[in-house]
Structure formats: C-alpha cells, structure tokens
Amino acid sequence: DQQVKQNSPSLSVQEGRISILNCDYTNSMFDYFLWYKKYPAEGPTFLISISSIKDKNEDGRFTVFLNKSAKHLSLHIVPSQPGDSAVYFCAASAGGYQKVTFGTGTKLQVIP
Amino acid sequence: EAQVTQNPRYLITVTGKKLTVTCSQNMNHEYMSWYRQDPGLGLRQIYYSMNVEVTDKGDVPEGYKVSRKEKRNFPLILESPSPNQTSLYFCPSSGQGLYGYTFGSGTRLTVV
C-alpha cells in the first residue's frame, strides 16, 4: 500500500520556467512532509520541509505547498535551472523522526 | 566533514552467503535507518533505530537484521541473501530537532 504517491515519473521543463512536482498521500496521520533531491550515483539530499500546521514554506527558489484537505503537496521551483535536473522524492512522517515514508520519485529534466 | 559512510559501495555476492553492510555517521545523530531503492518503488524503509539498542521494523524488514550497539554505527545484516534483495541501499541519519535525513552515497548490492 503506497501511502505516499508521486504519479508523474518524469517531467520536462524549459530553463527559466516553473517546475511543479506533485505528491499525494493517504495517511491522515502524517504531520510532517519533506522533499529530497537525488543526483545519479549520490544519496538523496534534503531540500525543504513543511509541517502540517502550515500551508506554505519557502526557501529561495523552492516553495512547498500543502493542501491537507486534499492530502496533496507540491514543490515549485522558480526559475528552473539545468542544475535542478534530478530525481525528486516526496516524503512524510507521522509524529516522529524515525519512520519516514518516501514516494516513488519524479525525474525532473530542465532543458537549457 | 559531517557525513554518513557506507561500505562497501558496490558488492556482488552469491545466494545464501551471509553479508554485512556497514553504516557509520560522525554527527552524533540519534536516529538511523535503512532503506532500499528499487525502480518504480522509490525508497522503502527496512529498519530504523531511535538510539543505541533501540531498533524497530520498517515496511520491508523480511530477510534483514540490524543492530545498534554504538550510536555511530548501524550495520545491516543479510543472513542468507536472495536475488530479490538486489537493490540500492541507503543508511540515512538524523538528529533531535533536525528533521531532514543525511544520506550517504549508498551501497549497490547484487545477489546472483
């Protein structure tokens, strides 16, 4: 049972435009959400997170939006750069640091 | 440099031959975990540990063992590896109040 879903395996965006990566979840107990970026041959790196008490968190070019009623979150990257080309994982946890559930990932390609 | 170190990076082994993948972190993190990454399935949690001598099963623990005798180390043991354990393994860690995992570079395991 996939509790965190990323329904788009891949996404292509022109450099300078907005990239929007989506994530849906089914477990209403999730209260913390994270995004990770992964380059080939490297481990994932933490990008940005959001608590369920907020609906938006911004860090530079990256903004995460949370819609609790729809059990949906999205990551916006503006403007997109070629260095943003990577696999992006959405993750969620319920009440603790230890049990973090990841989605299946979305491969973003930013075209120069 | 703050990091998580996994060894080996690459391993090819035969079915049934016991192996251990080591994981060490130098950040004094309480939380450590093991994940496997497979195509189309994302990152799935195998085991996690909240501190020394405190471990618990994740979503896919079958065929694996762990131990946490020291805070910095969290080895993954495959007593009798099988081909369906061929995967890319990650051992991230996290500290109190720090919600993002720090990942190492991973271990690519092939069981033939």
Residues in β-strands, percent of chain B = over 45%
Question: How is the main sheet of chain A built?
Answer: 6 strands, mixed
Oligomer: heterodimer
Q: What's the Cα radius of gyration of chain A?
A: 13 Å
What percent of residues of chain B adopt helix (DSSP H or I)? under 10%
Average the pLDDT over all residues of chain A and give the rounded result: 94
Number of E strands of chain A:
11
Task: Compute the number of helices of chain B.
Answer: 0
- Ends distance of chain A: 38 Å
Residue-averaged pLDDT of chain B, rounded? 93
Kindly provide the radius of gyration of chain B, computed on alpha-carbon positions and rounded to a whole number of angstroms: 13 Å
* Poorly predicted regions of chain B: none
Helix and strand pattern of chain B? EEEEEEEEEEE
What is the approximate shape of chain A?
A: globular
Uncertain residue segments of chain A: none
User: Structural class, from secondary structure content of chain B?
Assistant: mainly beta
Let me know the number of strands of chain B: 11
Features:
heterodimer; A: 112 residues; mainly beta; 6-stranded mixed β-sheet; 5-stranded antiparallel β-sheet; 54% strand; globular; B: 112 residues; 7-stranded mixed β-sheet; 4-stranded antiparallel β-sheet; 11 strands; 47% strand
Describe what this molecule looks like in 3D.
- The complex is a heterodimer of chains A (112) and B (112).
- Chain A has 112 residues and is mainly beta.
- Chain A has no helices and eleven strands.
- In chain A, strand 9 and strand 10 form a beta hairpin.
- By secondary structure, chain B is mostly beta strands.
- Chain B is built from no helices and eleven strands.
- Chain B is globular and about 40 Å long.
- Classes of the chains: A mainly beta (112), B mainly beta (112).
- Chains A and B meet through strand 4, strand 5, strand 9 and strand 10 of A and strand 4 and strand 5 of B.
